[in-house]
What does this fold into?
Amino acid sequence: MHALLKNMSPGKNQLIAGTIAISISAILWGFDGVVLTPRLNNLSVTWVVFILHAVPFIIMNLFLFKQYTNLKTFIKQDYILFLLVAIFGGALGTISIVKALFLVNFHQLSVVVLLQKLQPIFAIVLAAVLLKEKIKKNFAIWASIAIVASYFLTFGFSAPSISMDDNTLMAAFYAILAAFSFGSSTVFSKKILMNHNFVTATFFRYGTTSLILLIFVLLTGSFSQLEATTNTNWIYFLIIGTTTGSGAIFIYYYGLRRVKAIVATISELLFPISAILFDYIFNGSMLSPVQFASAAIMVFAIIKLNS
It folds into this structure.
């Protein structure tokens, strides 16, 4: 294996390292969505998302306070991009997906997976328009196979079953909104990483998002949730904030710096795979043979995207 990697070109090594990093992040997000975030459903969505950004940012300031010196080198475009990433990826996207999960009481992963099936569509289009990334024939084929496989992974041979009750319909709306938000954030983040390293990108993403959400929390009166936050809640906030939250973003930005945005967003499809597997491990939800086959096809397609 060492000899194989040694013979590979630097560009190929960067591609593999980036894809692996993004895949690890996606798996961490799957674990978070099934095992960790549900433990916070006694609190309001806005408060949860604010604390999940504020706690990691406070911890980052203990070790990365020198990052503030980078502000001297920021140009107008940097401020705009960080604001866009904070709004779409940090605030709007995270609030939307957590709201969708809360609305269905974490019992319908199909709504969560819907996010991952639609996100690549938004990200690929935006990457082509904003980053001028060309969509090659080989990529289009394997990306399409991955997206189609994700559908069967979620629903099998059955059509999506969405009841007409208000909660489910609203959850579907928030999931689609999150798909657009996260897809947009992937592209904006890629533009940031063209000029800044992944540490700087993560630090200011969390800082900007925390500031935006703090203003929102104060304006909406959500700060009263502080009294309702239990010691157990704080433990989960700390775990999520340092592992599946900021930890995963650090790893994600490390990978995103090394691959194209369209490769990144397809690699993120490992989120629904890991979410369903963790759902089986922790909640006993069984995958059908069709879902197992679809998961295998999706992983194969993601690998072929980088060949």
Remarks:
- Residues 19-305 form one domain.
